[in-house]
Here is the input.
Amino acid sequence: MNSLWIDSVKGLSKFETLDKNLETDICIIGAGIFGMTCGYYLSHLGYKVILIDKNNLAGTTSFTTGKITSQHGLFYSYLNTSYDMHFAKDYLEVNEKAIKNIQDIINKEEIDCDFEIQNSYVYTTKKEELALLEKEQKVLEDLDYHAKLTKNVSLPFETEGALCFKNQAKFNPLKYILGLAKTIIEKNGQIYTNTIAVDIEKDKNNSIVYADTGKMIKAKHVIIATRYPFMNVPGFYFSKLYQSTSYIVALDTKKELLNDMYINVSSPIYSFRSAKFNGKDILLIASGNCKTGHDYSHENPYDTLKNFAKLYYPDCETLYEWSSEDCISLDKLPYIGKYSSLLPNVYVGTGFKKWGMTLSNVAANLIVDEICERKNPYAYLFDSTRFGLFKNFDEVKNMVVDSTNSLLLNKLKSSNVSLENIKTNSGAIIELDVKKVGIYRDKENQIHAINPICTHLGCLLTWNDIDKTWDCPCHGSRYDAMGKNLYGPAFKNLEIYQ
Ligand code: FES
Here is the structure.
C-alpha cells in the first residue's frame, strides 16, 4: 500500500538498524510526526537525541490526510458539555498555538512541504443537523472565537451550512517529517530504523530500552511515540484505547478543485482537501470510522469513495487508495505526559484521534516542558494517568464486550468455512483438527496458514478482505496476509503453519 505522500518524496532516506549499545539523553521510540517533533525541539535545546522505529520513518504519518487544524469535528460542544468552558477554551488555544508552531518550524528550517494556510469547515447537507452547527458556533462564541456559519463554500454540492475556522493549514506530512529528520541529524541526533523496541526497564535514574536486535539504549528520558503504546504493563493503555481505520482515495478530477478543507458532521464521514502532486492539484477524499477488526461485510469503502467522487467529477481517475489507523481514547482526549508513576522518566503521547498533525505538536511541547521541568498550563487537559473513563460509558461497554468475544467466546464458536470455499486473494479462519487456522489463498492459488491468535494479548483475529490483512478486534493490531505485523500494539509476527 502506497500513499501519495510516499510517492511524492524521492525515496525515503535509509537509516541503519541499531547494532550497538548506546547511551543518550533522550531515546524516542517511534519516528512519526510526534516522535520527530519531540526530537526536533529537544535536539535544538542541546539534548543528545536517538530515535528508533520499527519500520522506516513516518509509518503512520505517511497515511494521514495532512490537515493541520484546531477544528476537530464538532468537538467544542462536546468539551463544553463533558468538562466546562475553561477546559474547551484551553483545548482550542493550545491547538491554535500548535498550528502556529508548525508554521514557525517550517519557516525557520525552510522546509519545503507544500504548507498552505486554508480555512477548515465542518459542513452538513442535512437540515436537521444545522442546529448542531449553530450550537457549536454558540459555544465557540462563548470562548471568544468567531467561527462563521455560511452556505457559501467551494464544495461541488449544496450544503445546508458550514462552520468555518479561519487560518488553519495543510501540508505534505512526509516532506515535513523529512525536514525535521534533517535538522535532527544536523544537531548530531541519530535515527535507527527497522529496530523494534521490545521492553523498557528502570535503571537507577535512567531507563534502558531493549531492542529486538539484541542491543539496548540507556537514556535519561524515554518518549514512547509509537501510535499505540507497545508496553502493556505498567500503563495499561490497552484498556483505554481503541483503533479506527479510515480510507482515503487520491483523485485526478480533471476539473478545477475546491479551496479549503472540509469534513461533514455525521456518518458516513467525508473529509476533503486538495494536495499538490507532480505539479497537479489532486483531490483527497477520506471516509470511514470503522473500528479496526470489526464488521468488514459492508461495501468496499474505496468503491464507496470512488462512486461518491464520480457523482461530482465524472471523469476522475484514481491515483492512490490507502487506509490509515488512528488511536482513540475512550473519552476522546489524548494521553500526554508520564507513562506511569512506576517509570518516572518515560513519557507518552497517544490517542490523537484523527487529528494527529496538530495534536502531535501539542504533545511534543508538553513532553519537552516535562523534561525541562517547565510548567505547561495545558498539561491538565491530557493527563496521561487519568481514569475518568466513565464519561463515555458506551465506549467502555463496547471495549469490554469486544474483548470478551475475541478473547473467549469467538474462540469457542466453530467456523463454518471450509478450505475449498476460500476464494483466491482472500482469507478466512477454518477449523483443522479442532484447531483454528487462518488461511490466506493468494492470487496464484497458493495456501498460506497462520495461527490467528493476536501476539499482543491473545484475541482471535478477523480477516479484512478490503485490505487483505488479519486484524485484531480487541486493540486493533494488524498483520499482512502472511502474518507479518503491520500495526501495534502487537510487535511480533503471527506464527506460521506449514
Ligand atoms: Fe490486543 Fe490483539 S491488539 S490482543
About this structure: Residues 238, 454, 456-459, 472, 474-477, 489-490 surround FE2/S2 (inorganic) cluster (CB under 6 Å).
